[in-house]
Amino acid sequence: MCELEVAPPDRLSADVGPVISAEALANLNGYVASMRARGFSVHAEPLGEATAHGFFIAPTLIEIASVADLGREVFGPVLHVLRYQREALPELLDALNATGYALTGGAHSRIDGTIELVSGRLAAGNIYINRNIIGAVVGVQPFGGHALSGTGPKAGGPLYLKRLLAGAPAAWPPLPAGEPTVAAKTFMRSLSQRGLGDLVERCADLMRASRLGVELELSGPVGERNLYSLVARGTVLCDASSEESMIAQIACALAAGNRAALAGPPAAAYLAALPRALREDVVPVAATDRIDAVLTDREGAALIELLGAVARREGPIASVFRYSAEALRRGDPAPLDFLVAERSICINTTAAGGNASLMTIG
């Protein structure tokens, strides 16, 4: 921190420039002051004469006692440091996930088990191992987040362009098929036992079309390994006016590995007859306080009303998609690709178990 030069960006020697506006500067200064007032240890080097004019703030380090001490994202040169016991790392990762922010994470470690734990448990859309956590390479490291840090397929990912189109074939872009979950298989068995005819086969088509669990190794710079994968988004609200449409929506949600939260007139009767094996994967909407995406068969004013209700919810923005039994039978493309989340993991394979530049410091 002592070595960083804070100065106008037209100077080649500048390491840190100004923040974007007076409002941003006031917010950052106010935040740092509030953390100092709460008793946290705060360190910042004095600013030099070059920062007399402009929106400059010194790089600042704040030591916190727990993840709960962070209330929101801080956009500026502010680094929070949290000390933790090694055996408490799983709980720490869970606490980070619980904040709802899931853009980028990173780990520096010589221990393969630690790397596997962090990359497997952290919910971030981008995870960097033994390298800096900025500078995604276009075409190699799809960049974007989940939950409060993103609303769908990320910039640069295979599914991103599909998000900008009014319609696209279900099988495009060409990615491998995934593997149905236990819940999806159990749901299909329950449908078959009820003898629902062509609806069963159409739902089976959804299961076969899902890309859940796909993992690809992407080409990239020498010395890096880049993995791309598709995982479940979380909880999908299934809002249907008929039992058949509810079944179609549940099939879509489960095919993508999500939990289905049911709403609408047929929900109560359907849940009452639900097989015991599915009662953790198909729940009433009141059983969850978080919705990651919405499927509905509403139209017109009723659809507008639902969009408003979803927009007013606390937490992540949830995308809304129209889907019904009629759409399933017609073979309309299901929004399966929007019910999975993209993750990219970038590993610096030249660091020999840890960041090489950090190792040389010791």
Give a description of the structure:
The chain is α/β, with parallel strands linked by helices and 362 residues long. It contains ten helices and 15 strands. It has helices spanning 22-37, 89-98, 112-121, 182-194, 198-209, 243-255, 267-272, 300-311, 325-330, 356-361, and strands at residues 41-44, 60-64, 78-82, 101-102, 104-107, 126-129, 146-147, 215-218, 224-232, 235-239, 259-263, 282-284, 293-296, 319-322, 340-348. The mean pLDDT is 91. The chain has two domains: 1-83, Aldehyde Dehydrogenase, Chain A, domain 2 (3-Layer(aba) Sandwich); 161-343, Aldehyde Dehydrogenase, Chain A, domain 1 (3-Layer(aba) Sandwich), CATH 3.40.605.10. It is elongated and about 75 Å long. Helix 4 (182-194) packs antiparallel against helix 5 (198-209) and helix 5 (198-209) packs parallel to helix 6. Strand 13, helix 8 and strand 14 form a beta-alpha-beta unit.
Short description:
With 362 residues, the protein is an alpha/beta fold.
How do the strands and helices of this protein lay out in sequence?
Layout lengths: L21 H16 L3 E4 L15 E5 L13 E5 L6 H10 L2 E2 L1 E4 L4 H10 L4 E4 L16 E2 L34 H13 L3 H12 L5 E4 L5 E9 L2 E5 L3 H13 L3 E5 L3 H6 L9 E3 L8 E4 L3 H12 L7 E4 L2 H6 L9 E9 L7 H6 L1
Parallel strand pairs: 2-3, 5-6, 6-15, 10-11, 10-13, 11-12, 13-14
Antiparallel strand pairs: 1-2, 4-7, 8-9, 9-15
Helix pairs in contact: 4-5, 5-6
Strand order of the main beta sheet, please? 5-6-15-9-8
Distance between the termini: 17 Å
Query: Structural class of the secondary structure composition?
Result: alpha/beta
Poorly predicted ranges (pLDDT <50, ≥5 residues)?
A: none
Indicate the CATH architecture of the largest domain: 3-Layer(aba) Sandwich
Task: Return the average pLDDT rounded to an integer.
Answer: 91
Instruction: State the helicity in percent bands.
Output: 25-40%
Corresponding CATH superfamily of the largest domain = Aldehyde Dehydrogenase, Chain A, domain 1
CATH topology of the largest domain: Aldehyde Dehydrogenase, Chain A, domain 1
CATH class of the largest domain: Alpha Beta
CA radius of gyration is 24 Å
Major sheet description? 5 strands, mixed
Question: Helix count, per DSSP?
Answer: 10
The domain count comes to 2
- Write down how many β-strands occur, each being a DSSP E stretch of 2 or more residues: 15
Shape, per Cα inertia axes? elongated
Strand content: 15-25%
Oligomer: single chain
